[in-house]
Write a structure and sequence with these properties.
The protein has 158 residues and is α/β, with parallel strands linked by helices. The chain has a single domain, classed as Vaccinia Virus protein VP39 (Rossmann fold).
Amino acid sequence: MLPCFTFLQSTKSLKPLVEIGVEVGYSTKHLLLAAKALDSKLYSVDILDRSNIANKLPRELKDRWIFINSDSVKAGENWKGEKIGLLFVDGNHDYKGVLADLKAWYPHVKANGIIAMHDCHYDSDVMKAVTDFFKGRNVEIFVIGGVLGMAIVRKLET
Protein backbone atom coordinates (compact mmCIF):
# COMPACT_ATOMS: atom_id res chain seq x y z
CA MET A 1 0.00 0.00 0.00
CA LEU A 2 1.18 3.52 -0.73
CA PRO A 3 2.63 5.16 2.44
CA CYS A 4 0.43 8.26 2.17
CA PHE A 5 -2.73 6.13 2.12
CA THR A 6 -1.47 4.18 5.14
CA PHE A 7 -1.12 7.52 6.94
CA LEU A 8 -4.60 8.56 5.90
CA GLN A 9 -6.07 5.39 7.40
CA SER A 10 -4.90 6.58 10.82
CA THR A 11 -6.76 9.89 10.55
CA LYS A 12 -10.37 9.20 11.51
CA SER A 13 -11.74 12.64 10.59
CA LEU A 14 -10.97 12.22 6.88
CA LYS A 15 -14.33 10.95 5.82
CA PRO A 16 -16.00 10.77 3.48
CA LEU A 17 -13.43 10.40 0.72
CA VAL A 18 -13.82 11.75 -2.82
CA GLU A 19 -11.62 10.84 -5.76
CA ILE A 20 -11.48 12.93 -8.94
CA GLY A 21 -10.19 10.84 -11.85
CA VAL A 22 -10.32 7.04 -11.76
CA GLU A 23 -8.66 5.76 -14.94
CA VAL A 24 -7.77 2.08 -14.24
CA GLY A 25 -8.61 2.20 -10.53
CA TYR A 26 -5.16 1.90 -8.99
CA SER A 27 -5.65 4.79 -6.55
CA THR A 28 -9.30 3.80 -6.16
CA LYS A 29 -8.32 0.47 -4.61
CA HIS A 30 -5.95 2.13 -2.13
CA LEU A 31 -8.49 4.80 -1.24
CA LEU A 32 -11.08 2.08 -0.68
CA LEU A 33 -8.76 0.42 1.82
CA ALA A 34 -8.54 3.74 3.64
CA ALA A 35 -12.34 4.10 3.46
CA LYS A 36 -12.73 0.65 4.99
CA ALA A 37 -10.35 1.53 7.84
CA LEU A 38 -12.31 4.75 8.41
CA ASP A 39 -15.69 2.99 8.14
CA SER A 40 -16.54 5.36 5.32
CA LYS A 41 -17.45 5.53 1.65
CA LEU A 42 -15.41 6.54 -1.37
CA TYR A 43 -17.10 8.61 -4.06
CA SER A 44 -15.15 8.40 -7.32
CA VAL A 45 -15.85 10.80 -10.19
CA ASP A 46 -14.78 10.30 -13.79
CA ILE A 47 -16.14 11.61 -17.07
CA LEU A 48 -15.59 8.15 -18.59
CA ASP A 49 -17.59 5.18 -17.37
CA ARG A 50 -15.24 3.35 -15.00
CA SER A 51 -17.98 1.43 -13.19
CA ASN A 52 -16.54 -1.88 -14.45
CA ILE A 53 -13.78 -1.50 -11.84
CA ALA A 54 -16.35 -2.66 -9.27
CA ASN A 55 -16.19 -6.13 -10.86
CA LYS A 56 -12.55 -6.41 -9.75
CA LEU A 57 -13.14 -5.34 -6.15
CA PRO A 58 -13.68 -7.64 -3.18
CA ARG A 59 -17.18 -7.38 -1.69
CA GLU A 60 -16.06 -5.53 1.46
CA LEU A 61 -14.60 -2.77 -0.73
CA LYS A 62 -17.24 -2.81 -3.46
CA ASP A 63 -19.94 -1.96 -0.91
CA ARG A 64 -18.03 1.20 0.06
CA TRP A 65 -17.64 2.51 -3.49
CA ILE A 66 -19.96 4.97 -5.19
CA PHE A 67 -19.04 5.77 -8.78
CA ILE A 68 -20.25 9.02 -10.31
CA ASN A 69 -20.02 9.10 -14.11
CA SER A 70 -19.80 12.87 -14.65
CA ASP A 71 -17.62 15.78 -15.51
CA SER A 72 -15.75 16.51 -12.28
CA VAL A 73 -16.52 20.24 -12.26
CA LYS A 74 -20.25 19.65 -12.70
CA ALA A 75 -20.17 16.96 -10.00
CA GLY A 76 -18.45 19.39 -7.63
CA GLU A 77 -20.83 22.21 -8.38
CA ASN A 78 -23.78 19.86 -7.73
CA TRP A 79 -22.34 18.06 -4.66
CA LYS A 80 -25.06 17.57 -2.07
CA GLY A 81 -23.19 15.17 0.21
CA GLU A 82 -21.64 15.88 3.56
CA LYS A 83 -18.45 17.92 3.90
CA ILE A 84 -15.47 16.01 2.51
CA GLY A 85 -12.62 14.81 4.72
CA LEU A 86 -10.27 13.75 1.92
CA LEU A 87 -10.37 15.01 -1.66
CA PHE A 88 -7.94 13.15 -3.95
CA VAL A 89 -7.50 14.99 -7.26
CA ASP A 90 -5.99 13.15 -10.22
CA GLY A 91 -8.26 14.23 -13.06
CA ASN A 92 -7.67 16.94 -15.61
CA HIS A 93 -3.96 17.86 -15.61
CA ASP A 94 -3.96 21.13 -17.51
CA TYR A 95 -3.82 24.41 -15.59
CA LYS A 96 -7.39 25.56 -16.30
CA GLY A 97 -8.80 22.10 -15.59
CA VAL A 98 -7.06 21.82 -12.22
CA LEU A 99 -8.23 25.32 -11.23
CA ALA A 100 -11.79 24.45 -12.26
CA ASP A 101 -11.74 21.26 -10.15
CA LEU A 102 -10.37 23.12 -7.14
CA LYS A 103 -12.95 25.91 -7.46
CA ALA A 104 -15.79 23.38 -7.71
CA TRP A 105 -14.69 21.07 -4.89
CA TYR A 106 -12.77 23.18 -2.35
CA PRO A 107 -15.92 24.67 -0.73
CA HIS A 108 -17.07 21.12 0.09
CA VAL A 109 -13.91 20.20 2.03
CA LYS A 110 -14.38 20.39 5.78
CA ALA A 111 -12.10 22.37 8.09
CA ASN A 112 -8.93 20.35 8.68
CA GLY A 113 -9.79 18.26 5.64
CA ILE A 114 -7.13 17.16 3.19
CA ILE A 115 -6.82 17.84 -0.52
CA ALA A 116 -4.27 15.49 -2.10
CA MET A 117 -3.13 16.63 -5.54
CA HIS A 118 -1.46 13.99 -7.70
CA ASP A 119 1.17 14.82 -10.35
CA CYS A 120 2.47 17.93 -8.59
CA HIS A 121 6.01 17.63 -9.87
CA TYR A 122 8.14 20.73 -10.32
CA ASP A 123 6.91 23.12 -12.99
CA SER A 124 3.84 21.06 -13.95
CA ASP A 125 0.51 22.68 -14.76
CA VAL A 126 -0.91 20.92 -11.70
CA MET A 127 1.73 22.45 -9.41
CA LYS A 128 1.23 25.91 -10.94
CA ALA A 129 -2.55 25.67 -10.42
CA VAL A 130 -2.11 24.47 -6.83
CA THR A 131 0.27 27.35 -6.08
CA ASP A 132 -2.06 29.93 -7.61
CA PHE A 133 -5.31 28.58 -6.18
CA PHE A 134 -4.11 28.24 -2.59
CA LYS A 135 -2.16 31.51 -2.49
CA GLY A 136 -3.61 33.62 0.34
CA ARG A 137 -5.91 30.82 1.60
CA ASN A 138 -5.77 29.46 5.13
CA VAL A 139 -4.05 26.16 4.30
CA GLU A 140 -0.90 24.18 4.98
CA ILE A 141 0.83 22.65 1.96
CA PHE A 142 3.33 19.82 1.95
CA VAL A 143 4.84 18.80 -1.39
CA ILE A 144 6.33 15.36 -1.92
CA GLY A 145 8.74 15.60 -4.84
CA GLY A 146 9.55 13.01 -7.43
CA VAL A 147 8.59 12.14 -10.96
CA LEU A 148 4.84 12.25 -10.29
CA GLY A 149 4.83 14.26 -7.08
CA MET A 150 2.02 14.88 -4.63
CA ALA A 151 0.86 18.02 -2.86
CA ILE A 152 -0.96 17.46 0.42
CA VAL A 153 -3.04 20.48 1.40
CA ARG A 154 -4.76 20.80 4.75
CA LYS A 155 -7.64 23.25 4.89
CA LEU A 156 -7.26 24.98 8.23
CA GLU A 157 -10.18 26.00 10.40
CA THR A 158 -11.51 29.42 9.60
